């Protein structure tokens, strides 16, 4: 048996903790303890992907095909804690873990996974430099690993926009409706899964979906880590 004393020392001095409850993780756990993983507020949107309260939010904004969410968002709940860790506490791998868990959930549910590509809602380059990673892209990477569907990075955010917080549904739409662009033709006739971290009014996802549809994408499905009132 080979022992890595440096890794053991670092684990002792800087123990890895759960992103949900902050308890120390065992060697077989990563980002989430087994208790928090079992407590995830997983939704059933994949059982009714074309008729749910998320699809209603998008009426009049875009022609997305199916709309999914992994977790149900609740204020001060586990999903909010995980989103906060992912976005603001430098936990990029948490997004990958959540994506893998969701991909596995879709497989177990025998969900019709027929996407050609997975695309993440892009950050503006300035925000990407500041944060260091795109949390939605990490979620996309996890789903990709679970489903063996490639990630495509061609969608671009061409304008820096103000935060959507405290804006109304229509104000959010006006803020983002013309800020995304896809310039290539390689997605013509393809079926794409577009992913983001959270969905409130759906304005950002709708704007991205419209840019993809304008580029010739045949169908766009949407999926987020969590959905609810944020």
Automatic annotation (TrEMBL):
Boundaries of each Phosphoribosyltransferase domain copy?
A: 137-227
Query: According to the lineage, what is the superkingdom?
Result: Bacteria
Return the InterPro entries for the record: ComF/GntX_DNA_util-trans, PRTase-like, PRTase_dom
Q: Which family does it belong to?
A: Belongs to the ComF/GntX family.
Name recorded for this polypeptide: ComF family protein
